[in-house]
Amino acid sequence: MIRRTFFIFLLTLLVWGAAARPLAAQQQPAKPASPTPPPAQKPAAPPADPQDDGGDAISVEVTNVSLPVTVLDGDGRFISGLKQKDFAVFENKRQQEIIAFEKRDGLPLNVVVAMDTSTSIRNRLAFEREAIIEFLEKLLDNRRDQAALTTFDDEVKIRAGFTSDFARIASSVRGVVKADGQTAMYDAVKKICAEQVPAANTKRRAILLITDGGDTASTTTLDQAIRAAQKAEVAIYAISTKGGGVFRMEGNPYLNIDDKDLKRLCKDTGGDVFFPSDMGQLKKAFKLAEAYLRNQYFIVYEPSEGRSKQFREIEVRVTSRKDTRVLTRRGYFSE
Length: 335
Description:
It is built from seven helices and 14 strands. The protein is α/β, with parallel strands linked by helices. It folds into two domains: about 65-105 and about 300-335, no CATH class; about 110-295, Rossmann fold, CATH 3.40.50.410. The model is unreliable at about 1-60 and about 245-250 (pLDDT under 50).
């Protein structure tokens, strides 16, 4: 009996000891973790600007505005020899300070020739090809200028990108052998500004439109075409192949609504429009367009107000003479 009692007592001690060991292990304090290195010291912040009142900073972007400017007399001839003091620049009717001025007649040009290939020019297509090739040959003879070609009827087609290779672009012009459909001129302007003008390698860039009439097929409006050109900072020149027996000038009663829209498209972007009366004067118009592009003054000013997302109207005046006509873009979008 005593042995049995002692055996039970011994077994109980063994079971209790086995159960107590894990409990004791849980109750032992955890070993202290390895000390964490102190964080790297950050460089001290620069002392606060004594004029900083802790408010939100206001950032105003001010960017110089560059203007290619052509100045003509009453007979349409380029006026040379003008100086910075002969010009005044206004933005939103406020006079601006001219910070740079230069006569630039030898800098490279980028010109996109936009050729109307609608049905109405079918009988003049061969002559227009010849006149365009002659224009391009003279334009590209110095290997510094670049030209591109786009045609438009119902559809706008980019025929050649910018190149100084006359043979290459002349081949593209000769490949235009079909005239059919309506006239999507404003669509052409928008497409050229979006897809061709960004590839230009100079700020002196222009579109030369050869067309016989108004737009009849575009989804783009006249105002949208003007805005696209102004945002792309490209001047539009146009040669009308409509003819009509007179050299239609501004104020002439022969100007119809299509002519007036074409004139607005050009003048609002800093270019001009030519209305030759016959095929002989058409070639003269191409020479005149090249002369306008070649003979320009270059004016830079810094707007007196910071840019905001709105259209800024520009006016350039020649203060030293009265018999002048100034060609430059009518404004810019500041976004």
